[in-house]
Amino acid sequence: MSDVKKKKLSIVMITHYLDLVWRSVLFLVVLVIWITDMINGKDTLVHQMKEHWVILSVLWLFFAGEMIIRFFPSKIRSPGCQKQFAINYIKTGNTEIHIPDNHATVMVALLWIVLNGVFGALHTLGILNDGFMLLLCCAYSVCDVICILFFCPFQSWFFKNRCCATCRIYNWDYAMMFTPLFFVPGIYTWSLLALSVMLLLKWEVTFYLHPERFSENTNGYLKCSNCTEKLCRHKKQLAPLWKSIDQFTRDRIQLLRHDVKYDNDKEGK
Fold first, then answer.
1. Distance CA 138, CA 19 (A)
2. Are 23 and 145 in contact (CB under 8 A)?
3. How would DSSP label each residue in 220-239?
4. pTM score of the predicted model
5. What are the pLDDT digits (tens) for 79-113?
């Protein structure tokens, strides 16, 4: 009976899967419209969204609502974003605060600014249109959930943190998601961006005022025993796949180096 219970999805996990489904559908719809526009030599995506203001309003309310919820404690949201609140601070008795390297935080911020700066420059030059920037937001929104459920490059390549619960930049997600909206003026777009930036600033201010809440060494809320998400199940199941891919890559690189060495030796003779 206990094994069955362990396999049940938590409410937090169910919300992640629902997010993945509806964000993927939104991305596909926007992608189809954008490709159709490109084929017809038009840019009607933004115009169509303004015409269908009811749909646009629902989307705005949904994203805005998700962000507003993040400003307050909630049992149905991830521990990764809930650790900032005093109500979720469980003292462990330790006073030494362990936080992932801040240099990695700065590096991620700079890389994200540069990446979207490139897209923004191409948009300013007229190479990319408003529709593409909206499509980029939708792509980011899907990638955001993929990072939570399956594979996170920020975790694996930069922070090396244990899981999402200890993620240093968890509440950066909406600001990163809506960064391209900076280049698409409008009440709907800029209000979403402004709200996401407010969420990020609140997170950062709380981090610098109360770093003890963000460290699993000082906050028992971040311990595995208190986790309501259990994302490690998915990522542990995928671990063999990533190892296989990594091993395949190393083998291919070694084979290519051997071929290059063989060709060089042959040419030398």
1. 12
2. yes
3. GGGSGGG-SS-THHHHHHHH
4. 0.83
5. 999 999 999 999 998 889 888 677 899 999 999 99
